[in-house]
Amino acid sequence: MANSKYEYVRQFETVDKIIPNTWLVVRIDGRGFHRFSQQHAFDKPNDRRAIDLMNRCAVEVMKDIKDITMAYGQSDEYSFVLPKSSNLYARRASKISSTIVSMFAANYVMRWSEYFGNVTLQYPPCFDSRVVCYPSDQNLRDYLSWRQADCHINNLYNTTFWAIVHSGKTETQAEEDLRGTFSKDKHEILFTQHDINYNNIEQIYRKGSFIIRQKTKVTSISPNTGEPVERIKLIPTPLHIDIIGDAFWTEHPDLLK
C-alpha cells in the first residue's frame, strides 16, 4: 500500500518485544467463570464436559501454533509454553497473547455443543491473557509446579466442600466446617464422613492436564491409491500426570531444550 499523509500515526505504536533467550508462558484465565459455571449448571465439584472442552481448545491451539511445545490446564485456566528459541511474531507480547487467547475462546464457542450437547450457550465466554518470560529451565518448572500445586489445593477444597453440601448442608455451613482446616483435615472429613478416598479420585481432577506432542499412529487415505496409509505424527496429547517431581522431566529431556 502506498504511503499516505495519515501513516504517521504508526509512530504512536509501542514496542512490546520480549527479551530473547527466555521461556515464554501465555496464561489465559476465564473471566467471570464462577457466574458462567452457575449459569450453565456445571456439575460440582468438577464437570468433566467443561474440562474436556478446555483440553480440546488447548489441543486445537497447539495444532495451529507449532511453536507451543507444552501446555498445562486446570479449572478455567491454561498456560501455553513457547521455548527460548521461539521467534513467533518477532516475540511481540501483545500479538502472541492476543492470538492465543482469541483462538482459544473461538474454539470454546465453536466446540461447545460437542461437549455440552443440547445445553444452550447463554452468553459468550471471556478469557484474559498475559505473557510472562522465565529465564531458566528451573524457573519454568517451578511455574508449572506452582500451577499443579494450585490445582491440588483447589480440588481438595472443592471436593470436600461439595461433599458436605451434597450431604444436605448449606454452602454457608460447608464454608464454616472447612474454615481453618488443613489438607489432612479435609482428607479425614472426606474419608470418615463421606466415604471418599481422595487419592482414588481421577488424576485429571487432582493433577490437571499437561499437553505435549506425542508420536501417534495416524491412518489416512492415500490420494494416489485410495488405500489407507499409516503414518507417525506428533499430536498434542493431554496427560494427567505429576510434573512436580523429576521423573517426568527425566523421561522427556527434550522438552527443556
From TrEMBL:
Keywords: GTP-binding, Magnesium, Metal-binding, Nucleotide-binding, Nucleotidyltransferase, Transferase, tRNA processing. Its EC number is 2.7.7.79. InterPro entries: Thg1_C_dom, tRNAHis_GuaTrfase_cat, tRNAHis_GuaTrfase_Thg1, tRNAHis_GuaTrfase_Thg1_sf. GTP binds at residues 29-34, 75-76. It catalyses: a 5'-end ribonucleotide-tRNA(His) + GTP + ATP + H2O = a 5'-end phospho-guanosine-ribonucleotide-tRNA(His) + AMP + 2 diphosphate + H(+). GO terms for biological process: tRNA modification. Binds 2 magnesium ions per subunit. Mg(2+) 2 binds at residues 29, 76. Residues 138-222 form the Thg1 C-terminal domain. Adds a GMP to the 5'-end of tRNA(His) after transcription and RNase P cleavage. This is tRNA(His) guanylyltransferase.
